[in-house]
Structure prediction request, 160 residues.
Amino acid sequence: MKDAIEKSLGAHVAHTARLHRARAAQLLRDLGLFPGQERVLQLLATNSRMSMGDLAGALKVRPPTISKTIGRLAAQGLVVRLGSENDARVVDVMLTEPGEERAALILGIWGQIEDEMTDGLDGKDRRRLRKLLRRATRNLTEAVGAEMTEIEPSDDDEDA
Prediction:
């Protein structure tokens, strides 16, 4: 018999999130990436050039976390660090051509995961689920407070 926590909506959401991350890790591994690194590549694909601080802010992680992630992506030749055009103290990051190619592949992976996750749901159910999850996120963001909204990887995560 399941206890109240196992039957709770929160337990189901947490379990689904863990499975989503595990599936993403499987598919990203084929691209030589860890979960979290794909978000950096996608941000840079959308914005072309961003400062390390802007990346950290957009991903809701601390600067040391983004620095470590950028270091790993740079070692793979997917990004380059550049001096800022406006401030010598700021480091900007851009995708390389291989990084752009990898970013394009990531969209397919995210689409595949979403299709697998929502198999059997029609378009109306998918939109409703998205709307409900956005509402739950807003509710918890308000409950937790602004100082707690940073998303940091857990100790067992490889990267941001």
